[in-house]
Amino acid sequence: MIKSKWDMFCESVSMSVSNIRGNKMRTFLTTLGIIIGVAAIIALMTVVQGATDTMNAQFDAMGLGTLRVSITGTALKRGLTDADIAEVLACEHVAGVSPSLSAKVTAKHGDAWSERISVSGNDAAYFVHNPDLLKRGRAINEIDVAQTSRVCLVDGDTAETLFFGEDPMGQTLYLSGLEYTVVGTIDEEENASLFSQILLGGASDGTVYVPYTSAKKLLGTSTASTLEVYVTDPDETDVAVEEMEAVLDAIFNYKDDTYTIINMESMTEAMNLMTSMMMSLLVGIASIALLVGGIGIMNMMLVTVTERTTEIGLRKALGAEPGQIQIQFLIEAIILSLIGGAIGVVLGLAISVVVCVNTDITFSLNTFAIGLGVGFSAAVGIIFGWAPARKASNLNPIDALRSM
Asked: Cα(291)–Cα(288) distance, rounded to whole angstroms?
């Protein structure tokens, strides 16, 4: 009975699987390079994408349509006075301005104290535009700012450092020797943004928020080093930036490098571009392992062809066409690659989950990374399996039978 092409294909698959199962150790060592390569690609792409999503979420939480102005100033003018801030607020596309001051001070409550508490001086507008920042109690209001009240809000790190085992609400603490009353607490997650850590000078034992006017007295300054500016329309952010640049240039007598305006949307775009380039570089490095794995598959298949020379000769003598022989060995190479790819996918996802959980990075299933890993493994099987398969199909049956 003449076999159909489908029957011959199924028979080739069956013979390939049987040969693979008969050499388990060699199969594992052969696919090891593919496993490592696919796992590395999936793990790297998933973790980098997760880190990007986490940072984007933090930037989004800071609010689109919000600009941050950092003042370096000149030798004669270090920061912005209240009059300067009023000029910025007068810009047509500026809806609000929140000046801020930040520094590390010595803080004390009872017997607990720390020299690494960050103080952030803000006005009422800051809390109005960042409502999620408040966890308990009340925020700093306009009366606190106008009366230079000594009230404050503390985050979780400060509460743990200075009020361990106590409820900080309503209690007092000393900042550089001045007494402040805690009127609210800050949401730790909202306070842990990347920008806030940079703004407040890196690692600290916690952050205390006080009225802007009180911070000026506490820190002994009359000017602001940082502004948070809220634009009237996020679509008009570029126009607002131009208006602010014109005002700030005039304030600092058109000196260069006196201020920096940070547009969160532009920062997000730049960060996405950088992570995309980094991801491409990492995938390229991880692909080297796939190349090594492909060479291993080709080497193993060449050995298999040599070992099965007699089998190939008998099949050809019985009427098997060169194309059938080639397909059988090509299928075997592809199956080896896909086995390695499947194991690599599982291993890569497991590594991704472990890394994300231990680094507080958002884990999301990256289907593109999985498809890329599986596609690479299949391509490796086809590319590196073709030469051995071609060699097997070109064997002369008479020469092959002589080895019996």
From this structure: 5
